[in-house]
Structure formats: structure tokens, C-alpha cells
Amino acid sequence: MTPNVRDRADRPSRAAPCHDAIPEISWDRAVRLIGGAEEVALACHVTPDGDALGSMLAVGFVLRSMGKRIVASFGDRHFAVPRLLRFLPGQDMLVPPEEFPPVPGLVITFDASTPERLGLLRDNAARAREVIVVDHHPSNESFGTLGLVDSTAAATAMLAEQLVYRLGGRLDRDIATCLYAGLVTDTGSFRYPSTTPAVHQMAARLVATGLRTDEIARELWDRSPFGYLKVLASALERVRLEDGLVWTYVTRVDRAAYGLPYAELEGIIDIVRRTDEAEVAVVLKEDDHGDWQVSTRSKGAVDVGTVCSVLGGGGHHNAAGYTSHDGVVETMARFRRELAKVRRRSSGAV
Ligand code: 5GP
Ligand code: MN
Fold it and tell me: What are phi and psi of 298, to 5 degrees?
């Protein structure tokens, strides 16, 4: 049965930690701003993951049911929904960044910690009259005109769920599928320490709509083109372990040999980071323009979010990233230098 969100029993408790940090006055203002807008432009971070795209589409469904004109987009130079996320409902809401309103009245951003994460849509958002920022990154820079930011939330999807309810929306299977994709992505399938009781309670509300958790898991993690295995093999062939750091890289030439899109590389870090001997894992992924996206993971002792912030990116304590315009050798040299500083600081603090 579809939970009716107007029914108090189905609403998360006011004390739920997932939104403690956001004052009521901010939620009220968000609801008022959205209520007063005829058109709402939604944006999530570039090369969206399940949390960014899922949160955006879930809110998009509700806005559409409220009779709003909406556009939803993300600012990649080559606009394409990552294959892993094409199963998400609501793709018809998406437009390429060129079709995003140049001077929007109201923009809502999802899972973006800085304006830079909006890529090509950064300037559109800068020109908007109002920008509501829905995010859970501790590194969030408080951009926009209204922040719905809670770094204790395991996923932006938790805040998006709140927004759905507060707009008077109800969970249906489509909205729940989008939110669930965000929740499972950002909690590593309920494995990361961010997996609080509130996360499982939210999952229960979503699953109660009848969504297929098995199909979602398969779409997200259990399928890939054959070329992925070959590219993964190259990455693992050159993997290195040095002083608690395990790292490797994937070039665009590796991918070109199998026509493998950049977005297919997302899961490689999850294989590399399992290394027992390493506390930090890094995968450098060359995009189609020759820039390197650096994915980093920590088992907890080191704050890779700090390391990546210093290097121009951001993220969380245990998962963070940044873009490097240097080559592999130089990128890793800089990363090691900053990692050493953060390690020294954290061992000094003990
Ligand atoms: P991933 O390695 O999966 O691409 O990213 C891990 C985490 O780091 C995500 O939470 C993501 O939002 C953040 N992140 C990755 N790349 C960047 C970046 O270039 N800038 C910022 N600010 N955060 C990033
Ligand atoms: Mn997220």
C-alpha cells in the first residue's frame, strides 16, 4: 500500500536525526518559495550519482503533480544520463543544460556542495532570483539563497524525502524508486557507518510502496558491458600499494579500446578499496577531455574530504574527490603530499 504522507503515522518523527540540523523556518521558507513559483528549475551535480539524480527526480515528480512547470538538468559538457541510472523513472523531466532557463526565477540544487559542482549550470544558478540548496556534504559552502543542508543525513535523498512530504506530496512507487536509489548509493547498500536507524526507517517507507529492491540493486551494481571487465583488468594490473595507500588509474585510451563510457568506471574504487593493507584508496579516471577525476576512499583513520578540499574538490570524511588537470605522476605526487599533512595532523591530535 502506498503510504499517505499526510498521515502523521507515515511521517518521520520530528526528532529524526536526518533533519535536525535544518530549522523549521528554512523548510517553511522553501515551501513558500516553491508554492509561489510557476516554474522551478532543478539541477544536480555533474556526472550525477544515484543520490543526485534520484533526489532531483523525486522532487520533480512532486512539483509536476503540483502543476508546476519544471525542467531538470545537470551541467555536463556531454549531457548523458549514466547508464546505471537510466532505469530511474522520470527521465522525461530531463533537458540538456543548453535548455535550462538562462535567468531562472527559482532553482533547487541537489547533492552539490559548491556552485562548481553544477558545471555548466553554475552561471544559470548564479543569475537565479532564488536558489534552494538541498545537500548533505559537510564541505557544503552555503551557496544559494536558502540552504536545506544537513551533514548528518546519510544521503541528500533523506532531505528530498522531507521536502516531498512538506510540499504535501505522497510517496508513490516512482518517487520511492528515485529516493531509494539515492539512499542505497550513498550508504553503500546500508553498509557505511552513516546507516542510522533513520536510514532503515526511510528504507522501510520506500519499500512499502512496492518497489523492486532486487531490480534496483541489479541495475546499480550487478551489470556492466563486457568492456568493463577488460578495463578493470588493466586498472588492477597496474595497481600499487605504498605505505597504506592503494591506487591505480584508468586512461581514456583504456576505455576507447572497448568503447566504454567514463561513467562505467564508478565501481572500480569499490574493488580497489577492499585492500586490507591500505587505509586510503585512490582511483584516477581520465575523462574524454583528458582531465582526471580522482576518487578517494578512507577506512576512517584519515579524512580524505580534507585532502580533496585542499586539492580543489570535496566530499566526506570517508569518500571524496576532485578534478586534476595534471598527469598521473604529478597528480599522485600532490595527493601524497597533502595526504601526509593530514596524516601528520591526525596522528598529532591523538
Ligand atoms: P566519487 O569518488 O564517487 O566520484 O565521489 C565521492 C564523494 O566525493 C561524493 O560524495 C562526491 O560528491 C564527492 N566529490 C567527488 N568529486 C568531487 C569534486 O570534484 N568536488 C567536490 N566538491 N566533491 C566531489
Ligand atoms: Mn549524496
Answer: -125, 150
